[in-house]
Amino acid sequence: MPVVAQVLRSEWTKIRSVRSTVWTLGIAVVVTVALGALVSALVERDYHGLSPHDQLTFDPTFTSFAGTGLGQLAMIVFGVLVVSNEYSTGMIRTSLAAVPQRGLFLFGKLTVATLLALVVSMATSFITFFVGQALLGAHGAHLGDPGVLRAVVGGGLYMTLITVFAMGVAAMLRSPLLSLGVLMPFFFLVSNILVNVPATRKAGDYLPDQAGQKIMQVVTVDNTAPYGPWGGFAIMALWVVAAVAAGYLLLRRRDA
Amino acid sequence: MIELEGLTKYYGEKLAVDNLTFTVRPGVVTGFLGPNGSGKSTTMRMVLDLDNPSAGSVRIDGRHYRELVDPLRSVGALLDASAVHGGRSAYNHLLCLAQSNGIPRARVAEVLDMVGLSSVARKRSKGFSLGMGQRLGIAAALLGDPRILMFDEPVNGLDPEGIHWIRNLMRDLAAQGRTVFVSSHLMAEMALTAEHLVVIGQGRLLADTSMAEFIARNSRSFVRLRSPEPERLRDVLHAAGHPAAVGPDGGIEVEGVQAARLGELAAEHRITLHELSPQRASLEEAFMRLTAEAVEYHAHGQRRPGAAAGAAQAAPGAGSEGGPVPEGTAGGGWGQDWRKKGG
Question: Are both B175 and B229 inside the same structural domain?
């Protein structure tokens, strides 16, 4: 399909030729790694002050991913801007005149942005892990330990999926401000509150980020959710598919 | 060739484009004229399949826009020059469009040169002036070397030199046998560039005629006379073989006779004249009258026979005729009706 290759090439040019790409992805890497390193260093220093229970259930891998919660917000900004920039600038009309097949346009864009997010997320996840474990010293985990490689790869996949979810929501809402206004508070506050309040805990376990984050945990004794790491990842993937499908259907129906 | 058939667009309850049927032919510049908000841009967006028509269809050389392979190679359009990502350089903006349609990279530099933006090709377009942005939009339209070109208000924001350039560009493109469809709300601008004219008002087709025909019909010149003895004056004019009409303000209007001859005629019969003035209805007036009628039409929702007053007031001195355009005279029919009343 030469047309598909053309659209992918075009979308790659679009994504690499605006500064927001470098900024958002750069901030995601720096925040995730730096915060993970900071928390790992602090935990290493205070390890002997932890209660026996906390020491027994200590998850060095998940500890090094402490920056994910904040770093994912930068990935969300990246995902939102990739899609909603088309609308906020009016470029969408030029783009759709060039590629009138809505599906080809949207999936071309999402494919390129997702691949880029995947590369950046994977690199971030491995860097975060190795930096965190180095700072944890004797308490750190090794990539060969059971479940650790899955958690580190999962960290990269989690960051990627959260980005695609943001792209789907932006395709639905079109406005960057509205999309960020919905996604940022949700993932930064609302989801954490829902999952920590006993009354909403059960429902909170099925939110995309809460379910998806399970894949980054190696020690799961405190985990009350009725699904495993890949089960949680599948739940998150369903959310992503739903958001992208809704974005696509709206794009097909709407006037540009 | 662009063929519109029964093209209709509702935004909610509001009718934006009302059953438009016309054809834009190759080899000439076709002007698309209408006041602001008359549905020109909506129509153009439907041609590009950006907006879905509520009814009717558009064919590009017989095919629907979405069926075109590499559409930029068939149709180039400038709809809204500000519709670019300001953070992207002019070169990269054109490059991503070229790549999406399999247009070679060398063509990007070529069109940048054509529109005179080579020196700022690597600059981000958010720093561009209105005129430079317009040139970038035109470069994008020319990118695929298309047979059909569509420009929405292309002279907006251009300096006189830029306007001159655009006019020549459009004429050259048409002379190469391409289809050139250009919208404007300025009749004077169209009179300089377009050979064919499509006029819409309130989304409805008001005229589909050649520019020469439109000018011949509408730039009517006549002499207005005013006298305390209008009946006697009219008898004298009639006897001399000059048919006279009564204008909207009560003045007597005579076509095809020099003012000097009419003055002499009045003097011969010792008729006092209070006014003897040559008049010329401008194209702009004719256009305003035409579209004002469409506006009035919608305001009342139905045709009021003899509701000429409102229309005539819109263009004083434009002539005695000026009843509303009857329904069902869209297309060539409008012209015939005009001739009947004008003659």
Answer: no
